[in-house]
């Protein structure tokens, strides 16, 4: 079992985190991201408490020791079930357990969890109270929206944060957009509702004792640095996936003050060779890993050919790291 990071370490790591993203931030993606940043906090895709407790799907919690500090995000709305799921996650060695109160997907709504829980703050408080009991020294955090549907964010968000603080939560991530559960698709919910950074900033002024991270629309490391003048942490989503090196490549130096020389993009690719080899030896497919590498050279000359070679060749029989080396000269 991997020794967990101390609370202070995870709090520092959350100055910059990569958001939990379904179908994207799996263990292969996180291993790649860790090569670019020793310090940024990495999150799993959302794992539902029913899948762990009722479905026994503990394989969803598999991660590589190199990923630390790494947090697991849980979805659910049954306090007892979330407590059991939290215990399972802690036993697997995660450094943080996060509760999803922000996902707007239909599947999440039908399960009465995710963003719809913004309408039930006392239920969320019951959930995190029991989760903290199960977590022991491992921090439990909450990722939320600023409101849902016709709620008034300037009224709802402060009250929600206060309820979380009263329940013992000391660290939260605020996605600075409303979620429209009726009328917008999950994809539209990531773009159409306007961002309200000033409201998130105001929460830090109102709750100076809490560690608050902002999420939503962060496109560059420069934006991360700007937001850190207001907030304790910044959580980056799609930009960290589609252009990971732009976000993570210089993050250790600029965000965490680490003087170690960072790997170049090419060195990151070469550092994946052993990992890819082990994955294939265990019966995996190279495409399961290379899909996360497509954005490594985003904005660089030859990036299009890099993506094309990987995309076209990764699903062919026998494809392995040789395909990656074939794409690299681009």
Topology:
Layout lengths: L6 H7 L2 E3 L8 H10 L4 E8 H5 L16 E6 L3 H13 L4 E6 L4 H5 L10 H15 L4 E6 L7 H14 L4 E5 L10 H4 L7 H10 L4 E5 L5 H7 L5 E4 L1 H5 L1 H5 L2 H6 L8 H7 L1 H9 L5 H4 L12 H11 L7 H7 L3
Parallel strand pairs: 1-2, 1-8, 2-3, 3-4, 4-5, 5-6, 6-7, 7-8
Helix pairs in contact: 4-6, 6-7, 17-18
Descriptive notes:
- By secondary structure, the protein is of the alpha/beta class.
- The protein folds into 2 domains: 7-256, TIM Barrel; 265-327, Four Helix Bundle (Hemerythrin (Met), subunit A).
- It is 44% helix and 13% strand.
- It has helices spanning 7-13, 27-36, 49-53, 79-91, 106-110, 121-135, 153-166, 186-189, 197-206, 221-227, 238-242, 244-248, 251-256, 265-271, 273-281, 287-290, 303-313, 321-327, and strands at 16-18, 41-48, 70-75, 96-101, 140-145, 171-175, 211-215, 233-236.
- An 8-stranded parallel beta barrel has the order 1-2-3-4-5-6-7-8, surrounded by 6 helices.
- The longest helix is centred in the middle third of the chain and has 15 residues, at 121-135.
- It starts with 6 loop residues before the first helix and ends with a helix.
- The model is unreliable at 1-8 (pLDDT under 50).
**CATH superfamily of the largest domain, please?**
Aldolase class I
Order of helices and strands: HEHEHEHEHHEHEHHEHEHHHHHHHH
Strand content bin: 5-15%
**Which CATH class of the largest domain is shown?**
Alpha Beta
Number of domains: 2
Task: Count the E strands.
Answer: 8
Which outline best applies?
globular
Over all CA atoms, what is the radius of gyration?
19 Å
Question: Kindly state the mean pLDDT as a whole number?
Answer: 94
């Amino acid at each position: 079992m991997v020794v967990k990071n101390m609370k202070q370490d995870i709090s520092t790591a959350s100055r910059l985190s990569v958001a939990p993203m379904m179908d994207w931030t799996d263990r292969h993606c996180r291993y790649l991201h860790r090569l670019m940043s020793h310090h940024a906090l990495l999150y799993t895709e959302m794992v539902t408490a029913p899948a762990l407790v009722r479905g026994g799907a503990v394989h969803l919690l598999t991660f590589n020791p190199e990923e630390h500090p790494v947090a697991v995000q849980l979805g659910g709305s049954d306090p007892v079930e979330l407590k059991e799921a939290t215990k399972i996650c802690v036993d697997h060695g995660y450094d943080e357990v996060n509760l999803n109160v922000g996902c707007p997907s239909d599947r999440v709504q039908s399960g009465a969890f995710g963003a719809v829980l913004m309408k039930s703050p006392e239920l969320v408080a019951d959930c995190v109270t029991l989760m903290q009991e199960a977590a022991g020294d491992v921090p439990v955090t909450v990722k939320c929206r600023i409101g849902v549907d016709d709620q008034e964010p300037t009224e709802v968000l402060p009250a929600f944060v206060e309820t979380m603080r009263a329940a013992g939560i000391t660290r939260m991530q605020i996605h600075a957009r409303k979620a429209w559960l009726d009328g917008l698709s999950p994809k539209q919910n990531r773009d159409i509702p306007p961002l309200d950074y000033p409201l998130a900033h105001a929460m830090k002024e109102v709750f100076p004792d809490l560690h608050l991270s902002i999420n939503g629309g962060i496109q560059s490391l420069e934006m991360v640095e700007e937001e850190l003048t207001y907030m304790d942490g910044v959580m980056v989503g799609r930009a960290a996936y589609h252009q990971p090196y732009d976000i993570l490549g210089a993050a250790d130096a600029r965000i965490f003050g680490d003087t170690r020389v960072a790997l170049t993009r090419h060195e990151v690719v070469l550092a994946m060779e052993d990992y890819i080899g082990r994955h294939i030896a265990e019966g995996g497919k190279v495409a399961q890993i290379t899909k996360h590498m497509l954005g490594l050279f985003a904005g660089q000359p030859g990036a299009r050919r890099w993506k094309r070679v990987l995309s076209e060749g990764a699903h062919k029989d026998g494809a392995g790291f040789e395909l990656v080396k074939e794409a690299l000269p681009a």
